[in-house]
């Protein structure tokens, strides 16, 4: 057979999302981290690694298998089949997830409304795929927004209309104006994505009044709210407002959750609580969760039972409370957050051109500077100063964030935070923004 030229595909003939900045952002940030492994990194919103323990994975698996044999009365064969075979599409730990939500969040969720997913990212995709019925359908989202949401929307060809955030976490007047403007253009706003607790990337939270008003606006405008809550348990230690879902009496909220920050990111387990009623063409009604499971069955079939068992074991061992399970982690994140905010104040407190927020919890601090923040500056920061962070422009679907950067507080220890902030101060000084204490700025390339 004669030699033939290998097939060459072109992106112009593939799905348009493959050239979308939202899908390239994550790869770029991972790539630059790999190129500069010795740089101190304020970039990834990952949980602290010092508490990872492989033995705990085995222990939790045993805890869950004991639960199957004991509380559920499974035979040895049934236990083996549950963990080893293809499983229920909506998941095998849905009842434990519901108990955990009741315990930690005051959410009364029917276990049948819970769909256990491959990370929260799949939960987002399933919900958006279900809601996007035709080209008129659009999603609203507070801007800046987690890039994973933007990417999921792009994959299902669902435009995202940005809503201003502001000090309250969402500008409700702007949200309503965006809804009305979209409808005047013949579009159909389906939902608004929000992260009310310590949002990624801004770190902002909504107070109780804003949450109630948002629910009222969603009811009035007849849209759903997609509430994403990966950081809610990592608060300052005081009273925190209830989730939107806990306040939701009209089933307006689809609740998106993840065990990546609270149990184990490597398990890749998330979930959606979708208790909205859905009526079919024959007039029969069921749960929105059942519709999501249909899509999931064609995407990932089911979430790994082994991964679910590890998460289920963690819930069982801690009386269904992830708040109780994360006491050590909470202390680390609180301490790190205070250290980063105080460290910025020590270096830039008298520098009016540099500002930052001081969230009451979560992983992220947003810093505003008088110079352009982009990927080129990040490359320079990594190469010459040995410090990584995230340009906020990656979290805007249009213009925005060009003078902002995001610092994640979760991964570094105390000494690394101080050294990393020193390196950041050196970078700022080179950009013409000198820190208060010039002794913090050391001459020479920091990464050499």
Itemize the secondary structure elements and their pairings.
Elements: H1 21-35, E1 40-41, H2 54-70, H3 76-84, H4 94-105, E2 114-117, H5 119-131, E3 137-143, H6 147-155, E4 160-164, H7 172-184, E5 188-194, H8 208-221, E6 224-228, H9 244-247, E7 253-258, E8 270-273, E9 277-279, E10 285-287, H10 288-299, H11 305-317, H12 322-325, H13 327-348, E11 355-356, E12 364-368, H14 375-385, E13 387-388, E14 390-391, E15 404-408, H15 414-430
Parallel strand pairs: 1-13, 3-4, 3-5, 5-6, 6-7
Antiparallel strand pairs: 2-8, 7-8, 9-10, 11-12, 12-15, 14-15
Helix pairs in contact: 1-6, 2-11, 5-6, 5-10, 13-15
Describe what is shown at a glance:
With 448 residues, the chain is α/β, with parallel strands linked by helices. 41% of the residues lie in helices and 14% in strands. The protein has 15 helices and 15 strands.
Using brief descriptors, characterize the structure shown:
single chain, about 450 residues, alpha/beta, 7-stranded mixed β-sheet, 4-stranded antiparallel β-sheet
Report on this model:
Helix content is 41%, strand content 14%. It has 448 residues and is α/β, with parallel strands linked by helices. It has a seven-stranded mixed beta sheet, with helices on both faces. Strands 11-12-15-14 form a four-stranded antiparallel beta sheet, covered by helices on one side. α1 (21-35) packs across α6 (147-155) and α2 (54-70) packs across α11 (305-317). Mean pLDDT is 93; it is low at 438-448.
């Amino acid at each position: 057979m004669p030699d033939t030229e290998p097939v060459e595909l072109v992106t112009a003939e593939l799905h348009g999302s493959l050239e979308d900045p939202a899908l390239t952002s994550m790869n770029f940030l991972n790539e630059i981290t790999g190129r500069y492994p010795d740089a101190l990194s304020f970039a990834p919103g990952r949980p602290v690694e010092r508490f990872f323990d492989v033995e705990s994975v085995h222990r939790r698996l045993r805890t869950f298998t004991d639960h199957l044999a004991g509380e559920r009365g499974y035979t040895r064969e049934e236990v083996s089949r549950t963990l080893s075979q293809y499983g229920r599409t909506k998941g095998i730990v849905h009842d434990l997830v519901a108990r955990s939500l009741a315990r930690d969040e005051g959410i009364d969720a029917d276990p049948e409304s819970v769909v256990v997913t491959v990370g929260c990212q799949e939960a987002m995709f399933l919900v958006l795929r279900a809601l996007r019925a035709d080209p008129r359908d659009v999603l609203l989202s507070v801007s800046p927004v987690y890039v994973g949401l933007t990417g999921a929307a792009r994959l299902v060809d669902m435009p995202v209309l940005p809503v201003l955030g502001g000090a309250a976490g969402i500008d409700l007047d702007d949200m309503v104006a965006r809804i009305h403007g979209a409808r005047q253009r013949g579009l159909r706003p389906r939902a608004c994505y929000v992260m009310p607790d310590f949002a990624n990337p801004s770190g902002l939270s909504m107070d109780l009044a804003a949450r109630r008003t948002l629910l009222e606006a969603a009811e009035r405008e007849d849209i759903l709210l997609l509430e994403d809550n990966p950081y809610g348990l990592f608060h300052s230690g005081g009273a925190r407002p209830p989730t939107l879902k806990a306040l939701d009496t009209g089933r307006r909220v689809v609740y998106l959750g993840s065990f990546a920050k609270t149990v184990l990111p490597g398990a890749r387990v998330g979930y959606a609580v979708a208790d909205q009623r859905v009526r079919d063409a024959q007039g029969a009604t069921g749960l929105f969760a059942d519709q999501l499971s249909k899509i999931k069955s064609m995407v990932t079939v089911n979430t790994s039972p082994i991964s679910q068992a590890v998460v289920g074991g963690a819930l069982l061992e801690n009386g269904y409370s992830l708040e109780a399970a994360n006491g050590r982690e909470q202390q680390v994140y609180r301490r790190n957050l205070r250290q980063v905010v105080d460290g910025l104040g020590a270096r830039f407190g008298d520098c009016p051109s540099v500002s930052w927020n001081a969230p009451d919890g979560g992983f992220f601090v947003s810093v505003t500077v008088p110079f352009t923040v982009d990927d080129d500056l990040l490359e320079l920061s990594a190469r010459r100063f040995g410090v990584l962070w995230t340009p906020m422009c990656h979290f805007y679907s249009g213009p925005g964030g060009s003078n902002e950067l995001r610092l994640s507080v979760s991964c570094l220890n105390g000494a690394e935070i101080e050294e990393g902030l020193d390196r950041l101060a050196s970078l700022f000084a080179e950009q013409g923004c000198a820190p208060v204490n010039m002794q913090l700025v050391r001459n020479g390339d920091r990464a050499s």
